[in-house]
Design goal:
Blueprint (H helix, E strand, L loop, with lengths): L1 H20 L1 E6 L3 E2 L3 H9 L2 E13 L5 E4 L3 E2 L8 E8 L1 H5 L5 H15 L7 E5 L7 H17 L3 E6 L13 E5 L17 H8 L9 E6 L3 E6 L2 E6 L12 E5 L3 H14 L6 E5 L3 H6 L2 H8 L2
Parallel strand pairs: 1-3, 1-14, 2-5, 3-6, 6-7, 7-8, 8-9, 9-10, 10-14
Antiparallel strand pairs: 3-4, 11-12, 11-13
Helix pairs in contact: 4-5, 6-7
């Protein structure tokens, strides 16, 4: 009887441990941060405890210089209930012309923005870059310097990992976020470029031996893509000026819940810990209102 009791207690402790370490999170990628009752209620109802907030991009300007761009404007304070992780997107072209002090420029700018907007208790900085073999050494060297700065302040450094990068050397950071979106080619009209099982499957075999701890990000957005004579023109946004001509084709893509859950199951088969933290991309009023609460609950469910 005592042995059965101990076994039951151990099972309960394991179950509780698994439940408490699960994190619901979201990316916020707009150039303006504003919150209303809809977003506040969503964060509370879905138990979101972590927000990955894009602070700015690093791009090449018209004079061929590396500079910040599209800096976020904070229209209101960040919710007290969430941990904020600043994110910086770096174009691969910028890494090809990376100045030696890019790590310092990024770190100082993030810290200044935290101070200006009263964003306290930051514990992590995340870098998003679709690096290539050509830029890998420069990018990794920059990350090593940036990680040193972050660690000196007690911060962690993370970065995004795209599917094709799973077959490459892992970057020198503390952890990664596996991007389970934008997995396909927007030029192929017959595929869903946001997430398609056929695009995912070939890469997952690399997960089993990947050396970085991972969280996983899943899509909650839609795209309307404009094609002309079966050729890709661009992704349509509310604020852009893509001209639609007679005979053009617009294809609207979103990812069914069944596809997200199947991919989530596939990740579990190769690296279950990667779903201990689930991040949706992205948090916006439109996505909250467009997708049912039940959808999010099933995606977030451990």
């Amino acid at each position: 009887m005592k042995k059965l009791f101990l076994l039951a207690l151990m099972a309960l402790l394991v179950a509780c441990s698994k439940e408490t370490k699960h994190v619901n999170a979201a990316y916020y990628w707009s150039t303006n941060f504003s919150s209303d009752s809809t977003m506040t209620a969503f964060i509370q109802e879905q138990h979101i405890s972590r927000l990955y907030v894009r602070y700015f991009d690093v791009v090449i300007d018209e004079h061929d210089n590396v500079r910040p761009n599209a800096t976020i404007q904070f229209q209101c304070a960040m919710p007290d209930s969430v941990e904020v992780i600043p994110c910086v997107f770096i174009t691969n072209e910028s890494m090809a012309k990376c100045p030696d002090n890019l790590d310092s420029l990024i770190y100082q700018r993030v810290r200044q923005m935290n101070s200006t907007h009263d964003i306290a208790d930051v514990k992590e900085l995340q870098i998003d870059c679709d690096w290539s073999q050509r830029t890998q050494k420069t990018y990794f060297d920059m990350l090593r310097r940036l990680r040193g700065r972050a660690h000196a302040d007690g911060w962690q450094l993370s970065c995004t990992i795209r599917l094709h990068q799973l077959a490459m050397e892992a970057p020198p950071v503390d952890r990664g976020v596996l991007m389970m979106y934008n997995t396909g080619d927007v030029r192929k009209m017959e595929r869903n470029p946001i997430l398609d099982l056929r695009d995912v499957q070939p890469y997952l075999r690399h997960l089993d031996k990947y050396s970085l701890p991972l969280a996983t990000a899943y899509p909650s957005f839609e795209w309307s893509i404009l094609y002309r004579s079966h050729h890709y023109v661009g992704i349509m946004h509310d604020d852009d000026a893509l001209t639609v001509l007679p005979g053009d084709t617009i294809i609207r893509h979103e990812v069914p819940l069944e596809t997200v859950l199947k991919v989530k199951e596939m990740v579990d088969e190769h690296l279950p810990n990667a779903n201990d933290e689930i991040i949706i991309f992205e948090l916006s009023k439109n996505n909250i209102q467009r997708i049912t609460q039940n959808h999010y609950e099933k995606v977030y469910h451990p």
